[in-house]
Fold this protein.
Amino acid sequence: MKKLLSFVLFFLVGSMVYAGGYRVAIQGQRQLAMGHTGVAVISSAESVFFNPASMSFLDGKMNFSLGVSGILSETVYENQQYGIEARTDNPLGTPFGAYATYKVNEHLSFGLAIYTPYGSAVEWEKDWAGSHLVNNIDLKAIFFQPTVAVKVSDNLSIGAGFIYASGSVIFNRNINRTLSDTNGNRANITIEEKGITATGYTIGVMIKPIDNLNIGFNYRSKVSMEVKGGDATFENVPAPLNAIDTKFDSSLPMPAETTIGMSYQYKEKLTFAFDYNLTEWSEYDALTIKLESDPNNPSVNLRNYKDSNTYRFGLEYKATQKITARAGYYIDESPVQDGYFAPETPRNDSVGYTAGLSYQVNSKLSIDASFLYLQFDEIDNSYDYYMEGGVAVPFAGTYKSSVIAPGIGVSYKL
Amino acid sequence: MMANRFALAGGGAFNQPMTNDNLGGLLMGGTQIQPTRYVLSGSNLANLAPVRKAGTPTTDITNVLSGDFNNMGVPGAKSFHLLANGYGNVAGVSVGAANPYFVRFASDPNTSIIVDAVAQDPSFFSLWIGNNDVLSFATSGGVGVDQSGNFDPSTYGPNDITDVNVFGSVYQTLLGQLTANGAKGVVMNLASVTTIPYFTTVPHNPIPMDAATATAVNGQYAAYNGAVAAFLPPAEAAQRTINFVAGQNAVIIEDESLTDLTGSGLPSIRMATANDLIVLPASSVIGTLADPANPASVIGVGVPLADQWVLTEDEVGMVATAQAGYNATITALASANPDVIMVDVEAMMQQIANGGIAYDGGVITSTYASGGGFSLDGVHPTARGYALIANAIIEKMNMTFGGTIPMVNPGTYPTVYLD
């Protein structure tokens, strides 16, 4: 039994989870349209996410924002040496955000945010060339964040929130590059767990040093999703290997993010915003999966991510009383280093282009729409840490990825 | 594999007469005529053994497939069989005049393999024929006849060695017909039997013995040893002297090439040497009792290993001579035709047998079951082994014809199957 599990684990060396951005930065229709800036923007209840402190400066007694985007993503893999081409058939991703703020008095505000900052759904053709690394993965996480903000003065506010996260993961990949039953059905393992919970926090500071200029700071802590006793299921593994379904333990970091930024309003109509994010991906050095039936031989899958920077630029233009137009642009660095580029991580450095509109239906209600086009640099890279019989077998190729994400939402102010 | 690569360069569909199931084996009119395939079976990885996959085949050769088939490979066919009319006639199967695999997809019972191939007007072909012209002799431990000098293949038995001139004339005819319309093609030469695990897995000296047992067994052969010393010249007497020692010992084998003294009651036996090749299936015979009631009848010790289990040094020589002759013919005919390239499979198999060929997940060797190069019958390559050959072909095609056809990755093709 031990032997078998070592054998199976031995091949379990890719990653369990889509990474390189299983961060999904779509946390509000208005702010996404501005390049997902917002740490220093005072616009709507979306602020509960972007900077809890800015709740203090919102207009209404109560503010609500609700929005959802549809992520259409595709990755194409090519290997010219062997004439291989494969593409993903990813299901529609639907990150959403629901935010509410309530101003108790001049100095104290409460807020609640429910949002999906991490997640990934990648589905390659079953048994494709990289199926020993991943066939499909579906990672979901929902954050619930009760929040409070205190206005210290007209120039300064601070805020903080507690994060309760709930997540699930399903991941399937083949045991190795060739193992099958005698009918040729490839041997594979599925790892699945629902109801994973974790906690974290967020803090924010908003400073208004002069008229029309806001400076914001936000820190969102790491949230470590720990799996204990998830289901590990084998399929089509030949009988002599005695693969018996078991439980697994693992953990996945949702890394801390620090944001500083500013916004400047020009002649009441035009707002310019800039955000800088530092995401502490270096937290993710390896993915370790421990099967309950063989706890002494965990599968350690090197990731070796590095911290990554994102630079965001956004513009908002109040065209008329009814219409506000937004546009944005951002540069998102990949945390994946050379030689660690795995197909459940088909994300390279990218550039995002955003646009959006708000239509003010009446003084309380507006409809917000956004559009994101994320263009990844074409990249020739490889994952060099997949081992077969003690030999590293790199999985190399050219990856081309792109994402479009149209979104719609409403904002309501009382 | 190659057609799959050619498709990337604009090649068309590639139809194959696949079996009806993944069990392998054949039926003829409902009666099983070929066993199912080999799988490695066991309750865990430590006790695996090759066995025939359980189940009854569902591929009945009397259900003849219709249509053209791009893959005209027929297991067991010898060179001259490709020219033989009626080789796909079901009536000929039981008498050995037809091949059940060809019966299943022949366009007509009276056609030949080459006629069906040429009828498709191919623009490119691969021809790998001749292995069975020596292999059936070799795998049967040399029970057939070396037909060198006999130019009439219709008189050959199934386990005979084809005359090299017959082979040459057949090969020339085959190439002539395949290239008649201007087709280009690739031919492959033939591997030496000394490079395939069917002949290299069972050692000549698999018998462990302690000193006391050796002395006792030698005692039983004292009379035989004395007689051969008396009757035979010293060289053959020495060759035939039976002498077990403490440690690993050679098996005792029958050898029909020895001076026949059976009239005097002396069997034609000797101890095997490293130059004799014990065939793979002998592994399940050596060390067993010929007579379960007689503990002295251990096969290979008290009872000689029969002719069919051993390719003796002489027989190895016959096989090698024929194979060298065929390969010379293939090389000469290929080099005489600019449209035909030859891939040196013989050299490749030598390399696999002597150190192996590296691939991205390790080294492919000819070690039985675990080496990755050969399937469990010990004769045919695995898919991974065939991938090496496909790459050699593609490489040579690209070099000769100036193409850029992508290679296959051997590491992504399976080897033997566990069950």
